[in-house]
Amino acid sequence: MLSRTADNLFWIARYMERADTAARLLDMGCRISLIPSAQGYRSEWDSVLQATGTGDLFRRKYGEPVQRNLESWLFFDRDNPSSVASCLTAARENGRIVRTALTAQVWDALNTAFQELRQLERAGPSRDPSELTDWAARQSAMVRGAIDATLLRDDGYNFLNIGYHLERADSTARLMDVKYYVLLPRLDFVGSGLDNYQWSALLRAMGAGRAFHWAYGGEVTAARIADFLILNRQNPRSLITCVAGIAGHLDLLARAYGRESAAQARAHDMRAALEAGTVARIFDEGLHEYLSRFIGEAAALGTLIHEIYLSGEMRGCG
Amino acid sequence: MDAAFDEMNGSGGGTRIPYARLEDWLAHMPRELRSLKQAEAEALFRRIGITFAVYGEGGDPDRLIPFDMFPRVFSGAEWARLDRGVRQRARALNAFLVDVYGRGEIIRAGRIPADIVCRNAAYEKAAVGFVPPRGVYSHIVGIDLVRTGPDEFFVLEDNCRTPSGVSYMLENREIMMRMFPALFRENRIQPVDSYAGLLRRTLASVAPLKCEGEPRIVILTPGPFNSAYYEHSFLADLMGLELVEGQDLFVDGEYVWERTTEGPKRVDVIYRRIDDAFLDPLCFRPDSTLGVPGLMDVYRSGGVSLCSAPGAGVADDKAVYTYVPEMIRFYLGEEPVLNNVPTWKCADASDLKYVLDNLADLVVKEVHGSGGYGMLVGPKASRAEVEAFRARLCADPANYIAQPTLALSTVPTFVDEGVAPRHVDLRPYCLVGERIELVPGALTRVALREGSLVVNSSQGGGVKDTWVLAE
Amino acid sequence: MRLSVDHTTRYSYASPVRSLVQSHRLTPSVCEGQRVLSWEISVTGGIRGADFTDGAGDRIQGWSIAGPLSEIGVTVKGEVETTDTAGVLRGHREAIRPEVWLRETAMTAADAGLGALAARASGEGSLALAHALAEAVAGAIAYRPGATHAHTTAAEALALGEGVCQDHAHALIACARLRGLPARYVSGYLFAAADGQPHEAAHAWAEIFVAGLGWVGFDPANACCPDARYIRLGSGFDARDAAPIRGVARGASGAESLDVAVAVLSAGQ
């Protein structure tokens, strides 16, 4: 497959996943702002901005966070490269360039999302945010579904999935990192209504509120949440699931190309470390330190994948 | 201008035979159904993403080219003649290219002036002395035809480089079959969907001698901002070929390679949709970033085939056009099946005088222009426009040719008020490789504005499905 | 005359480039008056690519060099036995019709100054006219290195009244075409004799097509026709088109610098 095509597929997936993340964050922000909190809802919006890494951009444009501005920032604003609109547009543009590597259904899903987005933009920001987040979740599910149901299981499919998993690992880690302090075992807050709410908001941002209860039952504790988001293989957004997904698709590529790669080895190392990990040891290292390290490793893996497969600079193995 | 020949209603009599079955269809198409179908067609086009951007204008790359649902129909016999004429022309144009980049017999024989060829900007010095595989320079020849009567067809111009629009021929048919399956059951319409397979076979048949095994073919596009990008990706998809940009290819040693996730892969045939000038900064424009450095050296040493071959453009130049009938006689020893439109060359003093005396009745075009820009349609122009054009013409006569205003045929077309005649032209796409192939179909462009003769999509033109009935 | 050539071109990049592709026209033309005794072209780390003779009769050799690299050198070494043909190009196989060489390029475009210069020259027949044009150009543009640069046009050089061999050749080509004579730019080497005359070892001159005789070389920079001191490499519409080395670096972000050293010596003396 053409390196540039693989690169485009990889980025379609990353943008779609990023759009999904932006919509979830919008949903979480709106939900939290509905309840009274000690610090006021502002700090919650702050952490949302922090999670998308666009806090500075936002302040330059709007100043202090106000809910209305935040809604349009996270959803419609083209000045925010991580907004739902920016990501869907970028995903569709990448799709347009590699039309031939997509099925009609996948293109249709990408294009429909873009066309409907333009209608939403024309209609203006008069809508209920929950309607917007539902719409965005539906679009990303449509694209994801079309990929799974119709795409050839060739190398392009693997690059798409690597993009999805890498973006998702990054977003899970960042989201946790922004809220890591609510997960720290501090006795004074245990059992307080606030913590519980923060926890459920975090799970909600991962689209995993119900799933958590199914998986763990019983009481919600910080350790269980950390376990669920980092080490639980049933959770589709946990770090271990994402890394295992990357490693698996790199294995498939290696088999198809008849050649192992350094990226594959790196992904397997990361997976092995997660498999051997426990929540206790993560807390011992420090949750924030652990997550920072993970984010760095995931970025390095992304760079390696780019160099080996996506840049087209590899020589002498034709 | 005389009343135009209408392809459905003739010059006044009853419905012509090829269109007979459409009368019924039209009768059962109330306004509401028509609007519904039109909306459906538009939604389909938008959904599949077939869009068009005006040449050189940037503009909205997602603009749709208007599609008119009323088909244009040819009988098998009418088509048989066009088929002969188009193939004949495609053969002669390629013979001409082999000749003028080789021994130049037609020039030595005095049948065409050396200057018209040799001093032509489209004549590539770098192409001289190299014969491409099978002696084919122009692998896809698009011939623009107009009609003025039941049996009167004229060639308006030839397109030997990379004629665009074939995706519309294929998609228009697809859409019509989806929307009006009954029409296709009632009429015996010859299919056009073999085009992609034939194009692929044509490209494979001109692989270089150095190619071993199945040739690797790619389509080279300037990128997604090009107005015809949709077509490039559409064709790549239909043929199962990689769509590449210049940056995806590189020259290493004696060959051209493609950058892939598995490492470099050797490329044998490049169907390029970029102009000669941008192909290779080492040979042509040094500032081009769209091309592949070193490509021309590999091409000229037989390491890769380029379709069309660099330099093919000299055959479709408007100054060369007037000599095509002469080429047919010279190379094929045949009389042209399809005639040229009578043309006055303004470079010639007596022709110029005639043109200036009759400016208001003529169509005057720039020799190197395209897309319907920079032209004067005398009978449609205001007095001031004619005079302004006269000044430009006098300043640089060699840059212009003139032709009579032809009463282009019309085909019924859906308009706001119902159905009305609109002027059309026709572009069949002839494939030239190991064999010469022509699918029974073409692109019909229609001037949607009442009375307009300009069919270019950049100036209010639309497209129609074009049928050839089985005998 | 037996001439030896030692020509090195060194490209240095401030930041390493990913790869490089070059197209060379560095082999002496096959024609009467020059016989190659030995000739070797080498490129540091280069892979030989396409190798063919084009329609103009020039030997073209492609090279690709995989990076990353900060410096490459192109070296030409060889010996050629030359004889004087009084500037006439004989025994040279080429397929391009002379009329093609009437085409103008940006560097050889005519202007009023060139028009006046061309109009002043007179001579009985094409050959005499060509000589007169070469003399006129030699008189109108004084040899002065540094006065012009690689992209100076014929019109600019004439207006300036100064230039180097490239400018002389461009001006002569423009004037010849104005008078209806096909003309082209030739690149090659010149043996710089110790006669006090300013010469350029990597040299350029013009060829004018004279009906009945064929292509004839004129070197306005030295006010003569090419003789046994000259080695012909290739031709083109202008300096860019006839360049002995053309190349493109991929991933070049920093500055590129060029260092050329040419020595043409008489080997037999």
From TrEMBL, chain A:
<dbReference type="Pfam" id="PF04168">
    <property type="entry name" value="Alpha-E"/>
</dbReference>
<protein>
    <recommendedName>
        <fullName>DUF403 domain-containing protein</fullName>
    </recommendedName>
</protein>
<feature type="domain" description="DUF403">
    <location>
        <begin position="1"/>
        <end position="310"/>
    </location>
</feature>
<dbReference type="InterPro" id="IPR051680">
    <property type="entry name" value="ATP-dep_Glu-Cys_Ligase-2"/>
</dbReference>
<dbReference type="InterPro" id="IPR007296">
    <property type="entry name" value="DUF403"/>
</dbReference>
Automatic annotation (TrEMBL), chain B:
<dbReference type="InterPro" id="IPR016450">
    <property type="entry name" value="UCP005522"/>
</dbReference>
<protein>
    <recommendedName>
        <fullName>Circularly permuted ATP-grasp type 2 domain-containing protein</fullName>
    </recommendedName>
</protein>
<dbReference type="Pfam" id="PF14403">
    <property type="entry name" value="CP_ATPgrasp_2"/>
</dbReference>
<dbReference type="InterPro" id="IPR051680">
    <property type="entry name" value="ATP-dep_Glu-Cys_Ligase-2"/>
</dbReference>
<dbReference type="InterPro" id="IPR025841">
    <property type="entry name" value="CP_ATPgrasp_2"/>
</dbReference>
<feature type="domain" description="Circularly permuted ATP-grasp type 2">
    <location>
        <begin position="71"/>
        <end position="447"/>
    </location>
</feature>
TrEMBL record, chain C:
<dbReference type="InterPro" id="IPR038765">
    <property type="entry name" value="Papain-like_cys_pep_sf"/>
</dbReference>
<protein>
    <submittedName>
        <fullName>Transglutaminase-like superfamily protein</fullName>
    </submittedName>
</protein>
<dbReference type="Pfam" id="PF08379">
    <property type="entry name" value="Bact_transglu_N"/>
</dbReference>
<dbReference type="InterPro" id="IPR013589">
    <property type="entry name" value="Bac_transglu_N"/>
</dbReference>
<dbReference type="InterPro" id="IPR002931">
    <property type="entry name" value="Transglutaminase-like"/>
</dbReference>
<feature type="domain" description="Transglutaminase-like">
    <location>
        <begin position="157"/>
        <end position="222"/>
    </location>
</feature>
<dbReference type="Pfam" id="PF01841">
    <property type="entry name" value="Transglut_core"/>
</dbReference>
